[in-house]
Design brief:
With about 325 residues, the protein is mostly helical. It has one domain: Orthogonal Bundle (Farnesyl Diphosphate Synthase), CATH 1.10.600. The chain has a two-stranded antiparallel sheet with strand order 1-2. Helix 5 packs antiparallel against helix 9. The chain is globular and about 55 Å long.
Length: about 325
């Protein structure tokens, strides 16, 4: 099995520690994903397959499988594939809304095939996600994924409403991140195993993931992130690094985000970094991961499963450090 791209060392450790079953199970997820996006007409199949082939960390499917454990079987594979399809759909739709040219260093479906085909591709991926679960009669999984998908839509709407507004505060930002990112991590854990400790773990790790992703948008080189530095700023997305930087450098609030060009976004990234905001946001993310790992202590899990999930959480941090 080909491992997901950009795999940080702790996640490699997870695959090695569970070599008797997890890599093979992830391979089953990949095969099911390939089967699921095929056979829907030439155009949709081409674009859906390109989205799948672009790769990814597959963190959400891994969480499903780890929470389900070695005995999870076919049901966990279906749930893992379904949540990745929803994630893929949101990326395709986000790229339409943002008019993004690149994703993971490759042309987006919106850029290569046009807006209409990209919208249709995202719709297909969503439909196939729920079909996987419905065909198996897994009502609980359908309800969990539905709840998460509604939260994603609410989060996307909130982000659009907040665009270019430098008065947005930390609490609003965190709520938006909870809806857009953390709920899908929660859902992944609960699809694998119904436990309140896992919900809390997924929420904390998902929030940390988003905070660190927002840090990387400011400091990460394009060859690592697959997109231009300051893409969020160009989209008018107000993130915690920007909020933190404005608290230290109030003049940042006078910047006209509407008027930014790529050079201006790079300059604003440098200004944000100069305030020390990136280090403060990283520290917040580390606290969230530590809290999430403590939540695992309350989960009805074998020590080995807690250890493996803790390594995945560490991988979120190392991926962006």
């Amino acid at each position: 099995m080909t491992r997901p791209s950009a795999v940080p060392p702790p996640v490699t450790a997870v695959l090695d520690a569970s070599s008797r079953w997890l890599p093979a199970r992830l391979g089953e997820v990949e095969e099911l994903l390939r089967q699921t996006v095929a056979g829907h007409g030439e155009a949709l199949t081409e674009d859906a397959t390109a989205t799948l082939s672009a790769g990814g960390k597959r963190l959400r499917p891994m969480l499903v499988l780890l929470c389900a454990g070695e005995a999870g079987g076919a049901a966990s594979v279906r749930a893992a594939a379904a949540i990745e399809l929803v994630h893929m759909a949101t990326l395709v739709h986000d790229d339409v809304l943002d008019e993004a040219p690149l994703r993971r260093g490759l042309p987006t479906v919106a850029a290569s095939s046009g807006r209409d085909r990209a919208v249709a591709t995202g719709d297909l991926l969503l439909a196939r996600a729920f079909a996987l679960l419905a065909d198996a009669g897994d009502r609980r999984a359908v309800e969990l994924l539905t709840e998460a998908s509604v939260a994603l839509a609410r989060g996307e709407l909130a982000q659009r409403q907040d665009a270019f507004d430098l008065e947005i505060g930390e609490s609003r930002y965190l709520e938006r991140c909870r809806l857009k990112t953390a709920t899908l991590f929660e859902c992944a854990c609960l699809l694998g195993h119904d436990d309140p400790g896992l919900r809390a773990f997924g929420a904390e790790v998902g929030l940390a993931f988003q905070l660190l992703d927002d840090v990387l948008d400011v400091c990460g080189p394009p060859e690592r992130t697959g997109k231009a530095r300051g893409t969020d700023l160009l989209d008018g997305t107000v993130t915690l690094p920007l909020i933190e930087a404005a608290a230290s450098d109030p003049g940042i609030r006078d910047v006209d985000l509407h008027g930014l060009d790529p050079a201006g976004a790079e300059a604003l990234c440098d200004r944000i970094a100069a305030t020390g905001a990136l280090d403060r946001v990283r520290a917040r993310a580390l606290e969230m991961v530590a809290t999430g790992k403590r939540r695992l202590d309350a989960a009805a899990f074998a020590p080995e499963q807690r250890q493996l999930l803790g390594l995945v959480a560490d991988g979120v941090v190392q991926r962006y450090s």
